[in-house]
Structures are given as structure tokens and as C-alpha cells.
Amino acid sequence: MKLRTTLVLAAALAGVAIMVSTRIAAADPTSRITILYDAFGADAAMKKDWGFSALVEISGKRILFDTGNDSDIFAANIKAKNIDLTSIDFVVLSHRHSDHMAGLNHVLSVNPTVKIYAPKEGFGIYGSSLPSSFYRKDESLPQEMRYYDGKPPEVMKFGAAWQRANIEPVDKTTEIAPGITLIALVSDAPGTKELKELSLAVNTSDGIVLVVGCAHPGIERIVEAAKAINPRIRLITGGFHLVVASDEVIAKAVAALKDSFKVENIAPGHCTGEPTFAALKQAFGDRYLYAGVGTSLPLGPGMGSVGRRGEGPALEENDLATYRKLAQREDPFGILRARQQRTRLSHL
Ligand SMILES: [Zn+2]
Ligand SMILES: [Zn+2]
């Protein structure tokens, strides 16, 4: 206790924001993260599609982080990995984009009462509520022109897209179980302004294991928030949202992760982007853990010493083809638009 007080004081003096969070013991040897949904991978039993989902098994907890882009594909991948959705502890939905949520219907068909953490958004699809004092009243109006006949309930509830689901909206960074924190941030990027996103930070005695969905608020901001819990970042996996970023922006992000934040291991996927995979692979070397769909990242002692660590290129040719096909079909991140703009600029 005394040591913790000293640490907090030292951090305060150094001008660093620190959050007091429980540290769980070192991840036991069976701890792992299994990638259940992504558009690249080398596991022939898994279907590839744009989107993200991962099962985080750590220190006795089984957490489903996001649910992919298509309920049927998600169900097929769950089956291929023999995962029992009735025994998960809870679900985290990182944000309201469909490539992270569409498999929730399958989860609920198997486990209708499972606890689901989702960002709290006014009038959003996860449901919300407001005190009825939020709207202006006009008592001069006849009763039939007034909301609720002039007698509104104290709290007005707004429905969720999954009516009977056990959704718990999360408004601010919260430690939801000992050592397990949901980092809540808001995007300020054009196109996703005001989008709320949750990231999962597990505080182990070997540092933070951080799982991000799309990192719309910015991967650097999320890592900064994680470092306030524990300055040692052991692993980051998920989408870093640099899929249309320029080489300069990618280089800056890679340098921040490696040199400023001193991230120990990196296992990027989803919307991180092909050029960012390449740049991270080059920067992190054998601390780059391949995280294609179907891969299990071991979190126990000697993490990364098994599996495909440091092996070959992060992407194979057929994965690249999948990415390009998806990007062209739906232009989900404005890839084509960005390319057109670049072409236009190069004509100036
Ligand atoms: Zn997104
Ligand atoms: Zn996404």
C-alpha cells in the first residue's frame, strides 16, 4: 500500500496521470488470444472477411471482444475453433460499426443473457436513458399537445437494437473486473467524429495486454490511456486504423509505439493496413506476432516463442487479394476516395 502511494505520488510529481488498477498475476500458461474474425489468415478452417473478433482467455476469464461482420461467417469460425459461447464471461463491443457487431445475433442465439459491455451513446443502438428534464416544457399547451400528457417519467429510456440483450453501457474508462479495464475514448477524426470506442486492457504482472477494435480515437491515445494503468505494455493486438494512412503518418505511429511507448510485442490485424503491417514487422522484428484469423497468441511465460513469431511475411498473396477485393467492393474506409484524391492532387 505504501509502495503504491509512493508510486502514485511520484507519478503525480512527474505530471503523469496514473490510474490505480489491480494487477492480476502473470498470465498463466493457458492464457491466449484467438483471432476469430479477420480478412487475412493462414488457417484453412477459418473463413476470411473484413471485420474483427477475438476470444481473450486470461487468468480464468473468457472474454469475447467484438463479433465480426457477418453472423453466419462468425458462427462458422466459432464452430471451427470449437468455442463454447455459453461459457464466456462477457462480451465487449468496441464500437457501433457493423464489422464488429454483426455476429452478436449469433452470440445471443446461443447465450441470450450474456453480459455485453458497449459504449454509452445517446439514442444509440445499444440503448440509453436520459432524465426527462432534458427537454424544454411549455405548460401553456393543452395536455394532448404535451409529451406524455405533461407527466413524463423521471428517466426516459431509449431502446437497444437487441431488445432483450443484457447490455451495460460504459461511459468512461472503468475497471469492470479486477485487473480488467475498458478504456473509453471518443474519436475526433473526420468521418467518425464523436464515435465512442472501448478498448480492453488486462493488467498483468508482466504488463498490459491491450486489445483494440478499430482504434478510431487513435492508437496512440489508446496506448497513452493504457500506460496510465501500467506503464509497461506487453502486447497490443487488433485494428490500429491506419488502413488509408500515408507513409509519414504510419512511420510516426510505428515510432511512437516502438520508441515512445516501448511496446514489447505487437500483433496487428484488421484495419491496421498492409503498409503498416510491413512497417511494424520491420520495426518490431521477432516481437511482431502474426495475428491472422485462426491464430492463437499465447500470453503465458515466453509469449511469442511458439506459433508463427517472426516467420515470413505477415501477409500472403491471397490475403492481399482478399483485402483488395473487399476494399473495392465496399470502399469501407474511403480507400477509393482517398486514392482518387491522391490522383487528383498529383495532377495539380
Ligand atoms: Zn470501425
Ligand atoms: Zn473495423
**Percent range for β-strand residues:** 15-25%
Bound molecules: zinc ion
Helix content: 25-40%
What form results from the Cα inertia axes? globular
Structural class: alpha/beta
Tally the beta strands: 15
Largest sheet: 7 strands, mixed
Topology order in helix (H) and strand (E) letters: HEEEHEHEEEEEEEEHEHEHEHH
Distance between the first and last residues' Cα: 63 Å
Strand order of the largest sheet: 8-5-4-3-2-1-15
Query: Measured on Cα atoms, how large is the radius of gyration?
Result: 22 Å
Q: Average pLDDT across residues?
A: 86
| Unreliable residue runs | 5-9, 11-16, 305-318, 326-336, 342-348
Number of helices: 8
Written account of the structure:
With 348 residues, the protein is α/β, with parallel strands linked by helices. Helices cover 26% and strands 24% of the residues. The chain has helices spanning 2-13, 71-80, 104-110, 219-229, 247-260, 274-284, 317-330, 335-347, and strands spanning 32-37, 53-58, 61-65, 90-92, 115-119, 126-131, 155-160, 166-170, 174-177, 180-186, 196-204, 207-212, 233-239, 265-269, 296-298. Strands 8-5-4-3-2-1-15 form a seven-stranded mixed beta sheet. Strands 9-10-11-12-13-14 form a six-stranded mixed beta sheet. A two-stranded antiparallel ribbon has the order 6-7. A hairpin with a 2-residue loop joins β2 and β3 (61-65). α2 (71-80) crosses α3 (104-110). The longest helix has 14 residues, at 247-260. It is globular and about 70 Å long. The N and C termini lie far apart (63 Å). Residues 5-9, 11-16, 305-318, 326-336 and 342-348 have low confidence and may be disordered. The structure holds zinc ion (2 copies). The site of one zinc ion has 4 residues, from loops.
